[in-house]
Design a protein that fits this description.
Structural class: alpha/beta
Radius of gyration: 30 Å
Low-confidence stretches: none
Largest sheet: 6 strands, mixed
Shape: elongated
CATH class of the largest domain: Alpha Beta
Number of strands: 21
Mean pLDDT: 94
Helix content: 25-40%
Strand order of the largest sheet: 8-13-12-11-9-10
Number of helices: 19
Oligomer: single chain
Strand content: 15-25%
């Protein structure tokens, strides 16, 4: 196995032809003979370059609508042969098989075809067969061939050829590893799509694939390595975001920003402006308003202390007035579907603040996959896209809620879905006024939310905390009346919860005794 291998013969077959001619010209300038297929060969020939059709190599024409063109021993023998193996060399000579030194293949755009919503048969036709076979063959034979799966790989190959007169073993190994990862991610996308098509909730094998978007400085903590990968799913958010300014995003920034944007997307921008402020993946304030400025001020009022250094997500185009208000306190990230130029100019004065625009809002009702690693494996479930409307509510107490209370119930339950369990939300007039997150007991979450609201009232000099007259939402049922009684103590006059406890009757009796209204949703929103 030789370290430096000159490039004498290259096989090129690409779907994405960006930069193709420049690469073909560079290979030709090195003296490499070019072999190609179909449209790739036509493009190279049209550029005035000498190129051999793969059909003249195999002795067979391209057939079956292009499904069969490179699946032949004279192609795969040239990719797989060990040139320092006497038996392989004899077989190559006997059968007229010539070796390849470079393989450049990028695959049929299956992921993009699925993302644009193509029908079943169109997706099937965009599954590449010959491409992955050639890539894997060349990657396995890294000792003698450099494999490129994108334009960056070709640039690296050409740079080494220019510098060293050929490719180095180190580069070929690196490209081999990347090639196997690429075909693995490609197959993962196909298998995931097929499982969805068949509505197979638990396929026998589950593969995950992603493409590196960003190498991160570190993970959740400085001693942890981390990177950000995108799966190809077209879901507006951090994966589609364009960063207009600010420092590089960190692991925690991305995690918290995703949580913020998924939450604020629960609120239809056509119905109202909405703002969510997040800290450590939990909201510390969420509100709707007639405009973003009003919504932001109401969200901030819930817990301005925790909001310091937080993430702000908006469901509408960021405007100047909102940007000026947000800029008054230290904020790590602001994310919105779009931003006005004068709003961007406001943040330009805050060089460390990251501003992201996504191009749209994610659909909270859309299906999707959620994955979490465990020791020796991972847990997979469908995304929590459950939503509750007023017609889903079952009113279980003697006192029935008013229309205004029902609206706040729905608002608070939407927020509760995005709060770490055990979650308790106090809300009033479409704004959170107290949030209890992540406590081991539900009664403690209710108490924490109440105490924080009381602290805010004391700081602002209010006579009563805003939890008085509020609605209380719980992400899961109250196992005992004590949690509900905390809500009563906070001043809540209506409660929304899933129900389903063996002690529901006791909780209902407690609500009736307190003369408050309560509704069951029949849907739980645990979040761990």
């Amino acid at each position: 196995m030789t370290d430096i291998l000159p490039i004498k013969r290259a096989l090129i077959s690409v779907s994405d032809k960006t930069g193709l001619i420049d690469h073909a010209k560079a290979l030709s300038a090195l003296g490499a003979k070019l072999v190609s297929t179909g449209g790739t060969k036509t493009a190279i020939a049209d550029a005035g370059l000498a190129v051999e059709d793969v059909s003249s190599v195999t002795g067979f024409p391209e057939m079956m609508d292009g499904r069969v063109k490179t699946l032949h021993p004279k192609v795969h023998g040239g990719l797989l042969a060990l040139r320092d193996n006497a038996e392989h060399a004899t077989a190559m000579k006997e059968h007229g098989i010539g070796p390849f030194d470079v393989l450049y293949v990028n695959l049929y755009p299956f992921e993009a075809t699925v993302a644009r919503g193509a029908d079943f048969e169109t997706c099937i036709e965009n599954i590449d067969i010959g491409g992955p076979a050639m890539i894997r063959a060349a990657a396995k034979n890294y000792g003698f061939i450099a494999v490129a799966t994108d334009a960056d790989d070709m640039a690296a190959i050409l740079e080494e050829a220019k510098t060293h007169g050929g490719t180095t073993l180190a580069l070929r190994k690196r490209l081999s590893a990347k090639a196997f990862a690429r075909t693995g991610a490609y197959d993962a996308a196909i298998s995931a799509w097929y499982a969805d098509q068949l509505e197979d909730k638990a396929p026998a094998y589950r593969s995950l694939g992603g493409k590196l978007r960003q190498s991160l400085r570190y993970g959740e903590n400085p001693h942890q390595n981390a990177a950000f990968y995108v799966t190809g799913e077209h879901r507006f958010g951090v994966s589609t975001a364009k960063q207009l300014q600010g420092k590089e995003l960190s692991f925690n920034n991305l995690n918290d920003t995703d949580a913020a944007f998924e939450l604020v997307a629960e609120f239809d921008p056509k119905a109202s402006a909405a703002v969510a402020i997040i800290k450590h993946a939990n909201p510390c304030g969420v509100a709707e308003g007639a405009n973003l400025l009003e919504a932001y001020k109401r969200a901030l009022e819930c817990d301005p202390v925790s909001a310091f250094g937080g993430i702000v997500a908006l469901n509408r185009r960021l405007d100047k007035a909102s940007a000026e208000a947000i800029a008054e306190i230290f904020t790590e990230v602001v994310i919105a579907p779009e931003a006005d130029e004068d709003a961007v100019a406001v943040f330009a004065k805050k060089k460390n603040l990251r501003l992201l625009v996504t191009g749209g809002l994610p659909d909270p009702g859309a299906p999707g996959l959620s994955v979490r690693t465990v020791s020796g494996g991972f847990l997979a479930q469908n995304r929590d896209n459950g939503r509750v409307t007023a017609t889903d509510l079952k009113f279980v107490t003697k006192k029935k809620p008013t229309d205004a209370q029902i609206r706040d119930m729905i608002f608070a339950f939407k927020v509760a879905k995005h709060v770490k369990s055990n979650a308790i939300i106090y809300a009033k007039d479409a704004a959170t006024v107290g949030i209890g997150a992540g406590q081991m007991s539900r009664v403690d979450s209710a108490r924490v939310a109440r105490l924080k609201a009381e602290d805010i009232a004391h700081t602002n000099g209010w006579t009563d905390p805003k939890t008085v007259g509020s609605v209380c939402a719980s992400d899961a049922f109250f196992p005992f009346p004590d949690g509900l009684l905390q809500a009563v103590q906070a001043g809540s006059t209506a409660v929304i919860q899933p129900g389903g406890s063996i002690r529901d009757d006791e909780v209902i009796k407690a609500a009736d005794a307190a003369e408050i209204a309560m509704a069951f949703t029949g849907m739980r929103h645990f979040r761990h």
